[in-house]
Design brief:
228 residues; mainly alpha; elongated
């Protein structure tokens, strides 16, 4: 679910007060890159973000450099060139660490974890999600923590380590239930049920599937009630 959280760092507010002569040009390239990205013209978007990157590197604007690197990585990710995306994410993350902005670091690490996952490099994806989880403990963001625990469970599932997967899905379920995130709670239950089903425990898997179904049914009934 963390896959839904992909986003660009906001660059314009960083650019505005820093330098005047290149500000307009840099803003133009950034907005151009963003427009092209949204139009799914990723090669052209890369060219625009590369121009922002060049300006940032020439003027030692490290935060802008990190942002441009991240955005180029996103373009390569959407092109399916995950190894290239990883190279840019790693460069962005190294710069982000200099400023110790954990919120920004989590965003880049999430992009990195997704790229590893796409390459079926589950060990590195797991390590990256673990890094995210440690940062989230200090950020006190329970929703993202529950999502990350769910993603860690996925990595253990892909690695065929079912006991560990269940443990993390259960932790995700407990937090998502605490914060009343019904859809995430149901997702975690279904994933645990899937493991029991694979292991031949059909009674337990059916119980969990039914519990997930009831949770989602109640949510939809409440949502329909609000619309009336």
């Amino acid at each position: 679910m963390l896959k839904k959280l992909i986003c660009f760092f906001i660059l314009i507010s960083i650019l505005a007060p820093v330098f005047s002569q290149t500000r307009e040009e840099s803003s133009q390239y950034y907005l151009e890159g963003l427009k092209l990205y949204n139009e799914k013209k990723y090669d052209s978007a890369i060219e625009s973000f590369a121009k922002v990157l060049k300006i940032a590197q020439e003027n030692y604007l490290k935060e802008i450099e990190a942002t441009a690197l991240n955005n180029i990585g996103l373009c390569y990710k959407n092109k399916g060139e995950y190894k290239k995306a990883i190279q840019f994410y790693l460069q962005s993350y190294e710069i982000k660490k200099m400023f110790d902005n954990k919120s920004d670091m989590v965003v880049v690490l999430n992009h990195l974890a997704i790229a590893y996952e796409k390459l079926e490099d589950y060990e590195n994806a797991l390590k990256t999600y673990d890094d995210i989880l440690r940062m989230l403990n200090s950020l006190k963001n329970d929703k993202l923590k529950a999502i990350t625990l769910n993603s860690i469970g996925d990595m253990y599932f892909y690695l065929r380590k079912h006991n560990q997967a269940i443990d993390y899905y259960q932790k995700s379920y407990e937090i998502s239930s605490k914060i009343n995130n019904g859809y995430l709670s149901a997702e975690s239950l279904r994933k645990i049920g899937r493991i029991y089903q694979e292991e031949g425990d059909n009674n337990e898997s059916l119980r969990l599937f039914n519990k997930a179904y009831v949770i989602e049914k109640n949510i939809k009934e409440k949502e329909n009630g609000k619309d009336e």
